[in-house]
C-alpha cells in the first residue's frame, strides 16, 4: 500500500524504479484506493515522508561522509531505499531488516541491479522486537559496529512497543558515537484538532483491523530517547516537512497530524 501511494516519490534511481515494477504490490491495491478516497492527510504523509527521509539522510551523509557507508533500514519492507542508496553511494553497504519479504526482496534486487550494487545490499529476515538477535544477524552479514551507521526506522514504530523500539535504537546508536537514526512515528493524538483527530482515528482503526492489532503504538519521544540513551537533535511535523520539501502545504499547523520524524543521536553527543 505504501509503495503504491508513494508513487513516483518511492524511488529516485532507475534501479529503484525497476525494483518496484518487479515486485508484486497487488495485495495493497484495495487499501491504497481506500486511503486515496477517504484519508487525504494520511495519503499526504505517505507521499512526503520518503523524500523527506532521503533529504535528511543526504544531509547527515554530507555532514559526516563516513556515515553514508553503512545504511540500516529497520522494517524495510518493499522500499527501494537500500538499492537507491547503494547506486548513489558506490562505496556504501545497506542492510535491510524485516520479519518478512526479505527473500522476495533479495531475488528482485539481484534481477534489477548490477552485481556491484546488489552485492552491497543484505536482506536479513529477523524479528525486530528482539533487538539483540537483530544486531547479531547484522554483524553476521558484515555490519561493523566500529564504524558509524545511518539508521532509518520508517513505518515500524506503529507496530512494536515503545520498549522494543527503545531497545533497538539503544543497540543501534550505542555502537558508534557518530551514528544517527531517523525515526518516523505517531505521537500523542490528544492534541489533534477535530477533523484531523477524526481522520487519524478512522485511519488507524482501518490499519488495526488489517494487521490484527488492538492498537497502534503512540510514541512519547522524550521517554523513547531517554530509554534508548539517545538525544533528540530535531523533530519535524508534516507542516515543516512540506515546507522543507518546497511543496504546497495541506497541513497548516502541527495539531493537524500526530506523525513526526525525529533525528536521534547517541546521548553522549548532547
Strand runs, count: 7
- What coarse outline follows from CA principal-axis ratios? globular
Note the total helix count.
12
Structural class: alpha/beta
Explain what this protein looks like in three dimensions:
The chain has 270 residues and is α/β, with parallel strands linked by helices. The chain is 47% helix and 16% strand. The protein contains 12 helices and 7 strands. It has helices at residues 2-6, 14-22, 29-38, 40-63, 81-88, 102-112, 115-118, 131-140, 162-174, 194-211, 221-227, 238-245, and strands spanning 70-74, 93-98, 121-125, 150-153, 180-186, 230-236, 259-266. The protein has a 7-stranded mixed sheet, with helices on both faces. α5 links the parallel β1 and β2.
Summarize the structure in short.
It contains 12 helices and 7 strands. It is α/β, with parallel strands linked by helices. A 7-stranded mixed beta sheet has the order 3-2-1-4-5-7-6, sandwiched between helices.
List descriptors.
globular; 12 helices; 7 strands; 270 residues; alpha/beta
Helices and strands in order, then pairings?
Layout: H1 2-6, H2 14-22, H3 29-38, H4 40-63, E1 70-74, H5 81-88, E2 93-98, H6 102-112, H7 115-118, E3 121-125, H8 131-140, E4 150-153, H9 162-174, E5 180-186, H10 194-211, H11 221-227, E6 230-236, H12 238-245, E7 259-266
Parallel strand pairs: 1-2, 1-4, 2-3, 4-5
Antiparallel strand pairs: 5-7, 6-7
